[in-house]
């Protein structure tokens, strides 16, 4: 089978040729062509040199059409965490405003279903779609967008489908880091509140927790692992179960800040001091993490920055489509950080920290 030529008919070079010549991604070439600011000067020079050496000329007719029309990006959401959604919207709206892009927001109501929501969004004439969790993992939505020929970016999926671009953090490594931090403080009975099973990131966070325990000779105690759904209410239920155990945990690691904040509320209701009697930590570092008392130690997932970058990736994919370039799916991994505040500490004085070990002792 003959390999497909990357040249346009008539012998002209494509954006992919320029990218290979400059040693960068096609997205970077597009950013330089569109005079976007988030490109290093050295990289910009390599790209412009490659454009000059190859004699590359963008499809001006298509580019004129693209500049004459405002790009319309759709945001389809059904996230139960208002704090997470607020961070995501702020980032996306900011980048759309900077780039002159119109953002169309559509809510996926549980009683209506994904198909109805995505069809409403498609009917609005969007050029591409942002998919924050949990819709970043929806095969139904992603397949429908693929059928419609629209580019999409999945944000914060633990295992993104290959047909869409994706931006995320390493959820397993982040959960490992937090669990190691708690072990380093002396905790051995560390409870874990799982995230909603409809999100692949939930599995990776649990796996990171379990792996870190195993690395320190500890086994997962199933009594200390409870199911949550990324909602404040599910965090209340989970904390109630954990804090009513005969041997309650000395630390609770919740899979998002909403559930961690709920756990703090339950602890206070039971007369427990956080962190003197009980350590509680979260995940995401939304605004909620610093507004509860005590402020949460948490994993910072750069939600707003991920949303901004997702807009940039999506806009580039739309422009490539307008310019007649083949679709490509890119994947970016952003950094996370463990943010320590006042909700964590050493186990209570006199607590022996007994926990199952890998040998069963």
* Structural classification: alpha/beta
Architecture of the largest domain, CATH level 2? 3-Layer(aba) Sandwich
pLDDT averaged over residues: 88
Uncertain runs: 1-11, 64-68
Q: Helical element count? A: 12
CATH fold description of the largest domain: Rossmann fold
Q: CATH-wise, what's the superfamily of the largest domain?
A: Response regulator
User: C-alpha Rg, in Å?
Assistant: 24 Å
Q: What's the arrangement of strands in the largest beta sheet?
A: 2-1-3-4-5-11
Care to describe what's here?
By secondary structure, the protein is an alpha/beta fold. It has three domains: 15-58, Orthogonal Bundle (434 Repressor (Amino-terminal Domain)), CATH 1.10.260; 71-169 and 303-335, Rossmann fold (3-Layer(aba) Sandwich); 171-301, 3-Layer(aba) Sandwich (Rossmann fold), CATH 3.40.50.2300. Helix content is 42%, strand content 14%. The chain has helices spanning 15-22, 26-33, 41-54, 60-68, 82-99, 114-123, 139-148, 171-184, 200-215, 232-243, 257-269, 303-322, and strands spanning 72-77, 102-107, 128-131, 152-155, 165-168, 190-194, 225-227, 251-254, 279-284, 297-300, 331-333, 337-339. A six-stranded parallel sheet has the order 2-1-3-4-5-11, with helices on both faces. It has a six-stranded mixed sheet with strand order 7-6-8-9-10-12, sandwiched between helices. Strand 8 (251-254), helix 11 and strand 9 form a beta-alpha-beta unit. Helix 5 (82-99) crosses helix 12 and helix 6 packs parallel to helix 7. The longest helix has 20 residues, at 303-322. The N and C termini lie far apart (61 Å). Residues 1-11 and 64-68 have low confidence and may be disordered.
């Amino acid at each position: 089978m003959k390999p497909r030529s990357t040249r346009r008919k008539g012998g002209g070079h494509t954006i992919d040729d320029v990218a290979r010549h400059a040693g960068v991604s096609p997205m970077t070439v597009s950013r330089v062509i569109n005079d976007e600011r988030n490109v290093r000067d050295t990289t910009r020079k390599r790209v412009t040199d490659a454009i000059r050496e190859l004699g590359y000329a963008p499809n001006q007719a298509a580019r004129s059409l693209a500049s004459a029309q405002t790009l319309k990006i759709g945001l389809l959401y059904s996230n139960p965490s208002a704090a997470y959604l607020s961070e995501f919207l702020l980032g996306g709206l900011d980048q759309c405003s900077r780039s002159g892009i119109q953002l169309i927001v559509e809510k996926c109501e549980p009683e209506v279903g994904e198909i109805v929501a995505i069809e409403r969004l498609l009917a609005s004439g969007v050029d591409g779609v942002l998919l924050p969790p949990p819709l970043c993992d929806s095969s139904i939505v992603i397949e429908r967008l693929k059928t419609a020929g629209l580019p999409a970016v999945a944000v914060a999926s633990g295992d993104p489908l290959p047909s869409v671009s994706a931006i995320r953090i390493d959820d397993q490594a982040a959960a490992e880091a937090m669990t190691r931090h708690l072990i380093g403080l002396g905790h051995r009975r560390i409870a874990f509140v799982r995230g909603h099973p409809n999100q692949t990131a939930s599995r990776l966070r649990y796996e990171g927790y379990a792996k870190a325990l195993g690395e320190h000779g500890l086994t997962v105690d199933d009594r200390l692992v409870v199911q949550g759904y990324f909602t404040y209410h599910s965090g209340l239920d989970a904390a109630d179960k954990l804090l009513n155990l005969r041997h309650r945990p000395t630390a609770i690691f919740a899979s998002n800040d909403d559930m961690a904040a709920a756990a703090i509320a339950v602890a206070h209701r039971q007369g427990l001091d956080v962190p003197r009697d009980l350590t509680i930590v979260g995940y995401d570092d939304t605004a909620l993490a610093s507004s509860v008392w005590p402020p949460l130690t948490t994993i910072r997932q750069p939600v707003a920055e991920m949303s901004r970058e997702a807009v940039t990736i999506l806009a580039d994919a739309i422009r490539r489509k307008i310019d007649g370039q083949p679709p490509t799916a890119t994947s970016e991994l952003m950094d996370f950080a463990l943010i320590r505040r006042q909700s964590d500490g050493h186990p209570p004085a006199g607590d022996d920290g007994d926990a199952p070990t890998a040998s069963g002792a």
